[in-house]
Design brief:
Length: 245
């Protein structure tokens, strides 16, 4: 049976629902689960850090769910555990979302409703993102992400795209879609590593796209991949670091 308590995390008190550890698991260190809820007005903090686990009365509880909602909250940086199963953010203004580097990537489901996010990193195909009236200025494709699923994002809000995923050999989404075709808000594309093929029409019609930097890993650019972009579009290759093959 869940308990509802107040837990201090950083400068704030969060409402927490605690789930006891499963009995008979054969492991004394098996943690219970915690669902964290935060709702308050007019908070402005530089950095909010959500831990991967919380301690209460001598027992450790893994953070499974995070739910943050309030129209007036404005945070510079929100640090989330990758091990959480569910993260829901509503009516937030957050400059940057980060992830706890020590935690394991889970099949987390993220739901952003009416949020304004400055920088959003995508770390894995296991992470499912649902967006409702949410804007993102800079999208960073990280780590284990190999395909992009942006159908529920407000694509017209994306200004900057950064790709640094070694596993993303071909820049396309699910069902071979070109997720950035016609995104007129896009101003810069920076491919640091991984991508070898940029398919045809990938950035066709991105009329504000002026800066494109490509890794040396890019071997082929498809037909009209950068057609009908800004007339002053500049395309450059990143110089390899000394010592790299």
């Amino acid at each position: 049976m869940a308990n509802f308590i107040k837990l201090p995390i950083g400068k704030f008190y969060w409402e927490a629902s605690l789930r006891a550890p499963l009995l008979g698991c054969g492991c004394d260190d098996e943690p219970g689960g915690a669902s964290l809820y935060y709702q308050s007005a007019y908070d402005s903090e530089k950095r909010i850090e959500i831990p991967a686990s919380v301690l209460y009365e001598g027992s450790l509880y893994a953070v499974e769910k995070v739910n943050i909602t309030h129209e007036s909250t404005e945070w510079h940086s929100l640090l989330l555990p990758l091990s959480a199963e569910s993260v829901r953010l509503s009516m937030q203004k957050i400059s940057q979302i980060e992830y706890q580097p020590e935690t394991t990537i889970s099949g987390c489901e993220y739901m952003f409703s009416y949020c304004q996010i400055g920088t959003l990193p995508l770390w894995s195909n296991k992470q499912l993102y649902h967006f409702k009236k949410t804007t993102v200025d800079t999208l960073i494709v990280e780590k284990e992400t190999t395909r992009l699923r942006l159908s529920q994002l407000e694509p017209e809000s994306i200004k900057n795209l950064v790709i640094r995923s070694p596993g993303m050999k071909k820049l396309y989404g699910y069902a071979s879609e070109t997720p950035f075709k016609g995104v007129v808000s896009l101003e810069s594309v920076h491919i640091e590593q991984g991508v070898e093929i940029i398919p045809a029409y990938s950035f066709y019609g991105c009329k504000r796209l002026r800066t494109v930097t490509l890794s040396q890993t890019v071997k082929r650019i498809g037909r009209s991949a950068f057609a009908d972009c800004h007339p002053d579009l500049q395309l450059e290759y990143i110089k390899p670091i000394e010592g790299e093959p």
